[in-house]
Amino acid sequence: MKGKKNIAIISLIIFVSIWFWGCSSEDVGGMQEVEEEKASQAEHQIEKTDTKEPIKVTVSFYPYYDFSKAIGGENITVKQMVPDGADPHSYEPSPRDLIELEGSDVFIFNGFDMEPWIADVLELIKGKDIVVVKASELIEGREYDHDHDHDHSHDHNHDHDHGEFDPHIWTDPMNVIKIAEEIKEIFAQIDPDRHHEYALNFKDFEAKLLNLNHEFESIMEEAHTNIILVSHSAFGYLADRHGIKEIAVTGITPHAEPNPGRLAELTKLARENELKYIFFESLANPRTAEVLAEEAGLKPLMLYNLEGLTADQKEAEEDYISLMEKNVEAIRKALTE
């Protein structure tokens, strides 16, 4: 009898164990299913984030394309209205430009009358869900000499009213920091999920701009003159910051032509100050500067005003930072040799 009882007890224990193990397996299986579902949801969420629509940005001309890409990276698309090589002063937006602009999230332009056509564009997008950035509102304007700028024989097709302030705010890296920071803030507001990425991109860009500013400061520590002779006045903000005296052949307007009296005045100035170089610009007409270079015995140097890129610069993947680094070396050569 005892043997039968023992067998019964053992059988009961085995039965209970099997039943308990089965329940436990179901619980484990259920937990695994929950975890798999969570993982699937997380994976789906990652896919959703990765396929998020990029911020659509339209800019008036090249510098703001570069600044936007530096901050936004692959998270934005940028449309540049004024083609490289065209003059932002005289450009007229095409119907296609305006249609694409209406589909943008952000529109960035310079201001200070750099784009005389901008009023009509702003009227078109008024009331639409587009964030508008006027870069000149972030910068203290630099007044320029109207009388000097208009003391030239003008081609009236290129004669524009530039307003009260020098519009070339982007040629000073310290101004660019203020503009880039505003762009960062706007991108973060539109796309808060990536605000850390925009902040990191800004910090990287800011470091490069600060380094450029430091390089310009170091030039003045070893300079034996503070005068640069340029084809047109596009570097006034940079010059003012570092104590450089910028003397322009054609004033603020790149296509203006100086009269003979102005050329004689500049020739005399170059000789009296023993200047060795005159700066040309890649997108400006070099004819007048070439005449002055020949008259005063000056050597040409290239200075990039960054209004746009040439085909060669695009092919070489140049950008704002790389071309400004070349400007550093050119100005160093002119002021220290």
Automatic annotation (TrEMBL):
Keywords for the protein's UniProt record, in alphabetical order: Signal, Transport
Pfam families listed in its UniProt record: ZnuA
A single MF term (Gene Ontology): metal ion binding
GO BP, sorted A to Z: cell adhesion; metal ion transport
Source superkingdom: Bacteria
PANTHER family named among the record's database cross-references: HIGH-AFFINITY ZINC UPTAKE SYSTEM PROTEIN ZNUA (PTHR42953:SF3), HIGH-AFFINITY ZINC UPTAKE SYSTEM PROTEIN ZNUA-RELATED (PTHR42953)
Similarity field: Belongs to the bacterial solute-binding protein 9 family.
The protein's name: Zinc transport system substrate-binding protein
